[in-house]
Give the backbone structure.
Amino acid sequence: MAKILLKKTKKIFTVAISLLFVLSIGYFAVLPPTSAWFYQSLLTDNNRIFVFGTLSGSQTFTGEDDLVLPAATKLESSGGETLFDDVLHIVSITAVNNNSSTIPARVYLTVSPTSGNLDGLRYFFYSADEKVTTVKDLIANKDIIKNSANDTLTALNNYNNGDGTIGNEGRYVLIQSGETKILKIAFWADYNVVGSTLNVAGIAQINYNVNITLSAVQDTDGAFTR
Amino acid sequence: MKKSIIRKPPTAVLIAIIAVVVAVSSAVAWLVVTPAVLNRIYSLSNYDAYANVYFVGATHGSEYFKNTDGTLNIDVATPTAENYISKLRVDANFKGRGSAYVRLKVIQQWQDSSNMILQSNNVLPYTIATPYNLNMGGNQSAWFDNRMDDYCFYYATKLTASNASYSSIPIITGIDINQFKAMIPTGTVTLKIAFTLEAVQINRYPQFWGIDTLPWLPAAVTTTA
């Protein structure tokens, strides 16, 4: 009698475990591609270090900076803006891939409004090791600067965010395991958008509340989606 | 004949596999990526600047001595006069959220008793609050005298201000009266002076001021092979 009961229990237990096994496998199968492995990120605002690849630590940021853009400017080639770099505000972030394996990572940038809108705020994402004389030269080397403002903006958006097709999420910086790179984001205000607001008697001020988000993902197209 | 027995994997092994799977699954769930975020508030504004011109100890403001063409009548003979030249003061007032270069344009005109304009290229020997140090060079929080080229004093660095209220920097704080007396044209003459403070965003001075380089900085050297 006890033997029969044990056999039945074993059978039920085996079925239950098999079911659990299938469910577990299914769980992995439906995970998104980026779940092949994960990064935990750590960004400290005080010294602007973005560490990822570790399994410890948690995201932190401290407060918010209130920064002044020196002036508005134009990026397109028509209009003859020769002192473009003089009015940039450049954010520098040290990115560290301290993954213990040899896995490289892509770092993508997303700029979004915390509140309100970012009409007229432009940015360009690059790595400090890209040797250039000026940021404008580097932008020009990426074939972004066109004759018209609209074409220039389209090219800039494609560079930063991709063209909307799958696997093309725009500019990323590749960081090898154990490598440290300085990421740079140059911000400016587009005179074509803000000029009419500012060109008035008295003082007119424009504010942009900005979230700068860095995401580290595996070095594979499709691993990051906007 | 010996009967072969197909042995099922022991339950303990299955349990171990499941335990590993469950453990890994929970670890994956735990290590969800958290993007790193920085918050920033960027702002920019236009700029407002004007020259605050006044006479020390005067009852009247400078408007009282202003002509319809914007020039000021300056007394050059009577030290007790409200608008006597040595009492003249000029401050740069500005506000705005951003950066700007400013310059003070100074125009002067001597006239004789019949209102004929007299030729005089002399720059007046004003006492400057913070004169530019030529030996030091570079950007300085000081006024660079470029009047021999374009009648202007330039503040030799970027100005930053606030929107809340006007900031003020003194420019002209007096005059070397002996030098000045030596350059007064002969006869009965009057002096008219006009001041204009100009501010320009730091990337647009070539377009608005018509200069390629800032006067206090060395011009870019172009070499040919």
Observations:
- Helices of chain B lie at 11-30, 147-150, 177-182, 205-209.
- Confidence is low (pLDDT under 50) at residues 25-32 of chain B.
- Chain B is about 15% helix and 35% strand.
